[in-house]
Amino acid sequence: MNIKLTFFGAARNVTGSSYLVEANGRRILVDCGFYQERNLKHRNWDPFPVPAKTIDAVLLTHAHLDHCGRLPKLVKEGFKGTIFCTPATADIAQIILKDSAKIQEEDAFNKRRRHKEERRKTRHPEEPLYRSADVAATLPLFSCVEYDKPVPLGEGLSASFFEAGHILGSTSIKLLVKNNNEERTILFSGDIGRWDIPILKDPNTTNAADYILVESTYGDRVHGKIEDISETLASIVNETHAKGGNIVIPSFAVERSQEIIYYLNGLLAENKIPKLRTFLDSPMAVKVTDVFKRHAQLFDKEAMDLLHTGNHPCDFPGLTLTRSVQQSKSIKHVKGSTIIISASGMCTGGRVKHHLVNNISRPESTILFVGYQANGTLGRAIINGCNRVQILGQHYPVRAQVKKIGGFSAHADKNELLRWLSSIKKAPREVFVVHGEEEPATHFAGFLKDKMGWKTMVPEYKQEVILS
């Protein structure tokens, strides 16, 4: 039995997740994500490495842009197969992809106009990667699956999806390949969440796999304690309020925004922070919050208990959900301190850029990061201490306080990844460490080899491996 595995994304970097499995005459793609690092964005425009029409199915671990964001491009290039995922993932992916197309169309229009006015050319594309029509053509290809129930893929292949605890609807996927009397299993971790975080159930585990692709976003570090989040968040809110500034929180629209609301809800209930005007300024995050309300069966026990008391974990008095552009623009005119939660989480696009323009040069304001910032993103530049940053074509001095709460991460840290892998009873044939920048990926591969005695590898982009 020969199985070919090719790494088409998230190999020594953290975005663009995409892995191709070829077995028994079938081509199965696991994830088809968007590249967000500035130095890798050109890959989004490159033709897909294999003809899209030859891919039979896509298995989608979850709905973050770096895992689903190139699906409309794949369809645009000829893919006509089925996209398998959980119902919550399908709901959120629809929101993510529609928003992505809209942002790309708007950015392309503004870029063309700006370059025409400045009479200069750019190496960056002035056309969107895909349009709203391409998203409309993609959505009918989604097919919802149940957790823990095998899905037949034809020619002896099947896939099982189980809880990853990363975002609502997220999964790890075990792909089973049978040929004559032989069978092999390939386990794709997707993005592994953390134990005991708000709202979501804990990650599920499996006890056997021949090959494993495991993420390593935080493979070289250990997070702060989850119980420290509330105290740190309260301190930042109170200090900024005392100075009369705003708290701008670049946040992922999916999961992270809802977690922040959950923590602010708790702090307000305990009178640990003042009742500040709080804006969830992301149409996508607002829509995703509605998805949370529709899929409450995926909540953990604590969130369900809160829900049964009539206090929804994703809402609180004083929270304003801004939908229109006009509502978003009016936030800067609000008197007094405000809390602004806005996408995107890495400051690569969306409304958060406008809030950064209004606050990043104000010493009394705070820019609070609550998630991972990939290399080459505006968020990484700010958190690395750059004195001046470019936002929407203009340069601004960074005078605001820049803070980070690491415990918010929806990604497992080094010890939690080991906890997830430790459920494997028999040593796998090989572990491929993916979805991590080179240093944490290499570190975790070495750590895993020393700790477990397993064979590990950190693959390169487009590297092919034969699993025999």
Itemize the secondary structure elements and their pairings:
Layout: E1 3-9, E2 18-23, E3 26-30, H1 42-45, E4 57-59, H2 65-68, H3 71-76, E5 82-85, H4 87-118, H5 132-138, E6 142-144, E7 151-154, E8 157-163, E9 171-179, E10 182-188, E11 211-215, H6 228-243, E12 247-250, H7 256-269, E13 277-281, H8 283-294, H9 301-308, E14 319-321, H10 325-330, E15 338-342, H11 352-359, E16 366-369, H12 378-383, E17 388-391, E18 394-397, E19 401-404, H13 414-421, E20 430-434, H14 438-452, E21 456-457, E22 464-467
Parallel strand pairs: 3-4, 4-5, 5-6, 10-11, 11-20, 12-15, 12-16, 13-14, 13-15, 16-19, 20-21
Antiparallel strand pairs: 1-2, 1-22, 2-3, 7-8, 8-9, 9-10, 17-18
Helix pairs in contact: 4-5, 4-8, 6-7
Structural overview:
The chain is of the alpha/beta class and 468 residues long. It folds into two domains: 3-221 and 410-467, Metallo-beta-lactamase, Chain A (4-Layer Sandwich), CATH 3.60.15; 228-408, Rossmann fold (3-Layer(aba) Sandwich), CATH 3.40.50.10890. It is 31% helix and 22% strand. It is built from 14 helices and 22 strands. It has helices spanning 42-45, 65-68, 71-76, 87-118, 132-138, 228-243, 256-269, 283-294, 301-308, 325-330, 352-359, 378-383, 414-421, 438-452, and strands at 3-9, 18-23, 26-30, 57-59, 82-85, 142-144, 151-154, 157-163, 171-179, 182-188, 211-215, 247-250, 277-281, 319-321, 338-342, 366-369, 388-391, 394-397, 401-404, 430-434, 456-457, 464-467. The strands form four sheets. It has a seven-stranded mixed beta sheet with strand order 6-5-4-3-2-1-22. Helix 4 (87-118) runs antiparallel to helix 8 (283-294) and helix 6 (228-243) packs across helix 7 (256-269). The protein starts with a strand and ends with a strand.
